[in-house]
Amino acid sequence: MNWPLTIAIAILSPLTHCAANAPQWQFNLKNTTSGIVALESIIVSPTLALFFDRAANDPLQINGHSAWGALWDLETSTVRPIDVLTDSFCGSGALLSNGSMVSIGGDPRAFAGNPAVGPDGNQGLRIFEPCASPTGEGCTLFEDPANLHLLERRWYPASIRIFDGSLMIVGGSHVSTPFYNTDPALSFEFFPRKEDTPRPSPFLERSLPANLFPRSFALPDGRVFIIANKQSIIYDIEANTETPLPEIPNGVHVTNPMDGSAILLPLSPPLYIPEVLVCGGSTADDRIQPANLSSQFPASAQCSRLTLTPAGIARGWEVERMLEGRIMPELVHVPNGQVLIINGGMTGFAAADNVADRENIGQSNADHPALVPALYTPSAPLVNGTRFSNAGMPNSGIPRLYHSSVTLTPQGNFLVAGSAPNGQFVPPAPDVPFPSELRVQTLDPPFMQVPRPRILSMPEKLGFGKRVTVPIALPTSLRGPGAKVQVALMDLGFSSHAFHSSARLVFMDAIISTDRKSLTFITPPNGRVYPPGPATVFLTVDDVTSEGAWVIMGSGNSPPTLE
Question: Which end of the chain has fewer CB atoms at under 10 Å, N or C?
């Protein structure tokens, strides 16, 4: 590996020193491996994460063949295989208003070494209904490819839950393209279906060829903001209109195979003004064929922030810089309103086995793993990069490049898994720098080492626009007057390919009673501010966060449901 000077400095520079005895962020390596490469992950219950991989030769077995689905027990750090029929490789997914998880799209190819793979996954719909078992025992996926499938073939699509609790599905490829989107799905569709044909999108056509996994966000007025390549729009679902917005500045491409990441910043009452943050990616020319690109090409350190109001759009993108360039980073909400920046590499590109300069890195198109996470504080002033910090952050010690995942858990830490910049399952070996990674870690915030607030009970369902009072318990250290109280209503999202689909944090006005025994908060006014469906409620007092309470926001009806 040839380390560019600027990257070497970024890695070797000492971090800001912290008080020796203060609790710190910690990586915690689990004793059990994931058994499959966790290239997609989603929290499906208070105790379970669901992982997907490709239908390949992963070591975890089910019914006499390699599994490509698994349930990870968040309480015991153990894994249980789950049977999948179609190939979920490089798909997306989200939760519906009734609590079901839907995995969509996938690989059109079969894997010769795994005879259990069914019809190709390109039009796949895989449904995980709410399962009462805390360990995953007896939990199953439902598939019926002949009768329940997408309208259009989609590999590398995006999906988000929208205002009526259904899914909007965006873009993708009709084929397993090796790098650029050469046979594109230039359309939107919905699950459950709203019409019998997909909706054509001129925006997706304009954003070719580097427009796989479009970064898509449900806005608090019901419209959808989408970024693909370096272009962006607001899409009005009800009017079926696209409104072009300013391009990402300075020629930075931010979708696959030049992955940056993006996140909708926390929404706060009373106005719930939406802002989006887009970080990382590449300034490489997307007209260059992959064989003429390099694994050593520096990733972009640029972050671009846009307020999605008429005045904010007129001002345009506000540009900041991360502490280092990152290709394939992931941005994840922290319950106190910060954003975790984690995973990825500092040079190269997404995908595998395409670009030049790979002599010492196997099939990976990227190099120089970014091993130290950082935090972004949206409310901090824009002065000399002070919104970014890695003070007190540990080194993960495990490269998380292409096909990595990360998600916030109901326990309040971050589940980190995956990485497989390879064309098939490649086990660790002395001559394999970036193998198919089965080791699982959590990134534990400092508050997990101190007494924490507790939400003692929570209704199973929360109505919109309601005042809700629940019992809590506060440690003595957090019972003083003047404490900062935050209550976050969160969709923990679906992690796939450096993006957290449907991830959302809505702050709720809240107050703690004078006896410090109850919490009262006001829920969002409607399903546009928070699309009806599963949510996790976190209480944070002076940056110490409780475990989350799993709820259904709204009626729990099947979609579409306007609430």
Answer: N
Measured between alpha carbons, how far is 278 from 248 in angstroms, rounded to an integer?
Answer: 9
Pairing of strands 549-553, 461-462: parallel
Nearest Cα neighbor of 49 from 67, 66, 69, 71 is 71
| Nearest Cα to Cα of residue 303 among 249, 366, 255, 257 | 249
For residue 31, CA distances in Å to 28, 401, 507 come to 10, 21, 35
What DSSP state is assigned to residue 178?
A: S
Tens of pLDDT, residues 494-550: 999 999 999 999 999 999 999 999 999 999 999 999 999 999 999 999 999 999 999
Cα separation, 233 vs 241, in Å, equals: 10
CA 389 to chain centre: 21
Q: Distance of CA 241 to CAs 207, 224, 233, 438, Å?
A: 17, 11, 10, 43
3-state per-residue secondary structure call for 229-292: CCEEEEEECCCCEEEEECCCHHHCECCECCCEEEEECCECCCCCCCEEEEEECECCCCCCCHHH
Tell me the per-residue pLDDT of 249-269, one tens digit each, with 9 for 90 and over. Answer: 999 999 999 999 999 999 999
One-character DSSP codes across 75-106: TTTEEEE---SS--TT-EEEE-TTS-EEEE--
The closest of 450, 470, 476, 473 to 544, measured between CA atoms, is 450
Q: What are 462's strand-pairing partners?
A: 553
Tens of pLDDT along 548-559?
A: 999 999 999 999
Quote the CA–CA distance of 67 and 81 in Å, as a whole number. Answer: 6
